[in-house]
C-alpha cells in the first residue's frame, strides 16, 4: 500500500498516478495525486493508518471487494519490497473486506502471477 510504510518509491507514485488516471477517465495531474495522498495522510494521522484502512473498507461495495483487494495488494508490490507493516495492513484489509485468509491468499497469488 503506497506510502503506508513511510516511503513512497518512484514506482509506487507512478503506479498510483496511473490508477488515479484510469479511475478518473483522464490522465492524472500532480495536483490530483497530491490531493489524494494528502487527504489520506491527514486522515491517517488523525485516526491511525489501521483505522483509516478499516473505514475505507466499509465503503467498498461487495461486488468490488476482490478488485479493491487485488489493486491494493498490487500497489504494495510495485516498489519490489514487502514491508512487514504493508503485509499486516493487507491482512487487515482482507478481514475488513470479509475475506477469509484462504481467499486473500488466492487473490494475492493471482496478482503475483500477473507480475511473473
What is this entry, summarized?
By secondary structure, the protein is an all-alpha fold. It has helices spanning 10-24, 30-47, 49-58, 65-77, 84-96, 101-115.
Q: Sheet bearing the most strands, described?
A: none
Termini separation (Å)?
19 Å
Query: What's the rounded overall pLDDT mean?
Result: 85
Q: Any low-confidence stretches, pLDDT <50, length ≥5?
A: none
Q: Return Rg in Å.
A: 14 Å
N-to-C order of helices and strands: HHHHHH
The percent range for strand residues is under 5%
What is the total number of structural domains? Answer: 1
Q: Give me the count of strands.
A: 0
Overview of the molecule:
With 116 residues, the protein is mostly helical. The protein has one domain. It contains six helices and no strands. It has helices at 10-24, 30-47, 49-58, 65-77, 84-96, 101-115. Helix 2 packs across helix 3 (49-58) and helix 4 (65-77) crosses helix 6 (101-115). The radius of gyration is 14 Å and the shape is globular. The model has no long low-confidence stretch (mean pLDDT 85).
Key features of this structure:
mainly alpha, 116 residues, 6 helices, globular
Q: How is the topology of this model organized?
A:
Layout: H1 10-24, H2 30-47, H3 49-58, H4 65-77, H5 84-96, H6 101-115
Helix pairs in contact: 2-3, 3-5, 4-5, 4-6
Amino acid at each position: 500500500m503506497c506510502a503506508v510504510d513511510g516511503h513512497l518509491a518512484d514506482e509506487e507514485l507512478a503506479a498510483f498516478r496511473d490508477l488515479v488516471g484510469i479511475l478518473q477517465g483522464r490522465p492524472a495531474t500532480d495536483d490530483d495525486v497530491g490531493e489524494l495522498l494528502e487527504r489520506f495522510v491527514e486522515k491517517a494521522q488523525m485516526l491511525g493508518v489501521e483505522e483509516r484502512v478499516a473505514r475505507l473498507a466499509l465503503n467498498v461495495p461487495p461486488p468490488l471487494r476482490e478488485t479493491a483487494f487485488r489493486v491494493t495488494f498490487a500497489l504494495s508490490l510495485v516498489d519490489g519490497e514487502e514491508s512487514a507493516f504493508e503485509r499486516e495492513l493487507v491482512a487487515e484489509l482482507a478481514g475488513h473486506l470479509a475475506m477469509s485468509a484462504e481467499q486473500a491468499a488466492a487473490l494475492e497469488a493471482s496478482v503475483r502471477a500477473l507480475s511473473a
